[in-house]
Design a protein that fits this description.
By secondary structure, this protein is mainly beta. The chain folds into two domains: about 55-130, Immunoglobulin-like (Sandwich); about 145-235, Immunoglobulins (Immunoglobulin-like). It has no helices and 24 strands. It is rod-shaped, with a radius of gyration of 32 Å. It comes from Camelus dromedarius (Dromedary).
Length: about 240
Amino acid sequence: MFQVSTQDPVAQPSIQASNTPVTEYEDTGVRLSTKHMGSPSWLFNGQTKLPTPIITSNNSNPLEHEDTVVLTCEPETQNTTYKWWINNQSLPDSTRLELSKDNRTLTLLHVTRNDTGPYVCETQNPVSAGRSDPFTLNVLYPVAQPSIQASNTTVTEYEDTVFLTCLTNDTGISISWLFNGQSLLLTERMKLSQGNSTLTIHPVRRGDAGNYQCQVSNLGYSSKSDVLSLEVKCE
């Protein structure tokens, strides 16, 4: 069994083990559980080592100025202190940030694009402390109207090549193209760049004449450019 030796008044107490199995030994607030001899669990005044915390959210893609987000530090454990960090800093004073009584839940009212994070929660008890992995919100906000830049708007059939570029300052968006108000059906003469920002038509034909628009979208919003008209001359 395990014994605590304190014969030397100067030396620190030590634990010795014999071949006799025991379930636990308790002395002066320190307990060693040996129910699983290969991996003992240390406790201090009934406190166990905390698991690594994780952050859960009721909404990972909230709409700016509309949605409220609730972040929770999991799991819930007794006699644990919870603390939150944003961008590696303590939480700022804000009327839009609310903490639960035990600090385990952080509520963000009417999120803005500045609330993306990352967020980290920290747990601590007398035995251990831990931090979660960073958690980042994808705050969706209205996208600005894009515009189209054309290499030429009046071209000659079978001779010219047209480059149409969708211009936008927004990030985290997808780009699509429309022709005469409908989704553009690509032909073998059309090519889209990576990210779909540039449409190339080579060579142009009379069937390519018409109205072009590009549309930018995120998970919550979308916006279309003004119409750009392409004229194709036939010789």
